[in-house]
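Repro case for the chain-ordering regression, as requested:
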Amino acid sequence: MSDPKTPVRGRASSGLRAHGTGRVVAPGQLQSGDIAILAPEAAGVPLREFAVEHGLRPSAQRPTALEYTRGLWGRRHFILAFATARNIAMYTEAKLGQLWQVLTPLLNAGVYFLVFGLLLHINRGVPNYLAFLVTGVFVFNFTQRAFISTSNVITDSLPLIRALQFPRASLPLAYVMIELQQMVLSMVVLVAIVLATGEPITWYWLLAIPALLLQTLFNVGFGLLAARIGSQVNDFSQLLPFLMRTWLYVSGVIFSISTLDIKTHRWAITILELNPAALYITLVRNALLQSQRLSAPGSKPYNPALCHAWKTLGHKVGAPVKYQYDSAYCHYYVNPNHYWYFAAGWAVLALVAGFFFFWRAETRYGRG
Amino acid sequence: MAVAEPMVVVDDLHIVYKVYGAGGDRGTAATVLLRLLGRKTRGSIREVHAIRGMSFVAYRGDAVGIIGRNGSGKSTLLRAIAGLLPPEQGNVYTTGDASLLGVNAALLDDLTGERNVVLGCLAMGMSKQETREKYQGIVDFSGVGDFIDLPMKTYSSGMGSRLRFAIAASKNQDILLIDEALATGDAEFRVKSHARIQALREEAGTVFLVAHNLEEVELTCNRVIWMERGQIVKQGDDVIGIIDEYIAAAGGAPVPRDRESGARVKAESLEAAKR
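-- result from build under test --
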C-alpha cells in the first residue's frame, strides 16, 4: 500500500522511464525532439503549486458572484426549457392534463367562497367580496406554490445535479418560471371572473403587470432561500404547509386587513399590511377591482361621520352595498404609493438575500 | 505535441463522509425529544474515511481506468474530481468542466428522451443552435430509436444509460468521468462508446473510467489506478500488468494472453488450441 503522503508517480514516473537518463524535466521546460512529460513531484514542485501554475482550479470551488450570475445568464435557454418540460410533465398523468392549471385555483377560490363568503359571512363590509376573494387566492397562490415547489427543487433534481455541471440556481429559477406560466393562465381566469362580477375595464388594470413582476422577483428571491433551506433541512417540508397556511390567514386573502379594528390595533394592522404577500395582493386588487380602489384607505379623506356609518351599517351582514365603500373614510391620510415602494423594496431585498444565500452553498447541493 | 498538459491534479486527497445516526436510533420520538431538550447530543456520528490520501496527475489525452473492489472508493474519487464532494484534506484541481456519467444518473425520468436530450445539452451550456445541430447525432448514437418519444422511465436500463452516455459524450468535455455507465450496454454499443471515448481523448479531454469489466479498461485506457480501501495500491501505464496483478490479488486465474502482443486470448480460441 502506498504511503499517502508521497504522491504516487504515474505518468510522471513513466515519463522519466521514457527519457531513460534519469534527467529531471522541470515544468515548462521543453526537451527538443521529445514529448516532454512533466514530472512535478520529481522536480520537487508540490502538486498544489504545479496545479496552480498550469491554471487548474480546485474542482469544488465556488465561482464568484459575478461569474455565477454570468453562468446563469448563459443558461437562460436551459431554464426556460426546463420550466416548460416540467410544466408539461407535471400534468401528463392526469386525465384533464393542463386544464388543472386553471381548475386548481378555481376550486380553491370556490372552497374559500363557500366557507368564508356564504357560510361565515366574513366579508365584513368588503364590496364585491367574490372578486376580492378570488384575486387574493390567485395572487397568494403564486407565492405559495413557488415557495413550496422550490423547497423541493434540489431533491427533485438530484440525478440531474449529480450528472451535469451547471449553476444550481437555474433550477429554483425554472420552478418560479413554471409558477409564473401558471399565474399568467390564472390571470386570464381571474379577469373573466372579475368582469363577471361587474367590475369595469379601466386603465388601472395595466398596473397589475408591474405588481406581478415585482411579485415574481420576490418569488425568485424567496424561492432561492427556500431551495437552500429545503435541501439542507429535511424537516422543512413537514413544517412548510403549516407556515404557508398561517401566512395565508394573516395576509388578508380572506378578509380585508384595512377593515380590522382600526383604532386599537393600528401597529398590528400596519405589520400585516406590509407583509409582502399582503402587499402584492393589495396592489393587484387595487389595479383590477374598482370596488377596492374606491374603498381603499387613502382614497377618500378622513370623515368620522361617514366612517361611523360604515361601522354601524356597512360592516354588518347583508349591509346595503352603498355603505360598504365607506370604510375608506375611516383612515387618516394614507399615501397609496407607499404600497409600491414597499413592494419594490421587498422584491429587491428578497432577490439579493436569496441570491447570496443560495450561492454560498453552491458546491454543497446534490451531495449526501 | 508540445508539453503534456495536466488536466486533473489530485493532491493528497482525503474524503470523509459523515453518517448521522449511525446507531439507528435517530427517528424514534423519544430520542428526538431528548435531543431537543438538550439532554443528549445528536445521535452518534460515524465518519467513513472513503479516500485516504491519494495523489496523481492526469494529462490531456489520458484515459485512466480505475479498478478495485466494491467499496474501495472508486465512485467517491470520481465524484470528488467532478467537484461534487468537498475534500476533507488536500484538494482536486481540474481545468474546465468535468462531467460525471454514472449508471444511476437518470436525467429526468418522467420526461421523454427527446426532452432529456435537449435539456441535457442546454444544461451543459450549449446554445440552442448547437443543441439543434447535435440532436440527431445524439439520438442516432444512442440507438434508442422510436423510444425517443417516450418518457425515460419506460426505458430499459441499457437504453437509459446509452442515451445518457450519448448526451454526455456529445459535448467535447474537458474531463469525462464514466462510472460503470457502459456496463449495461450491448456489444454494439460498447464498440461505439469505445470509439467515442477514443475520439474524446484525441479531441481534448481526459477520460476516467470506473469499470468492473477489466476488458473494458484494457481496451480503453492507457493508464490504470488500482485502489484498495481509499488508497492507491498501484498505478501506471502498464495497464495489462496491473490488471493481471489485480486479478491475481483477488485470487482469480490469470488471463490467458498472447505472449507477444499481450492481448487477451479468447476462450473459444483456447478451446480450439487444446483440440
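Ordering looks correct now. The longest helix of chain A spans residues 170-196.
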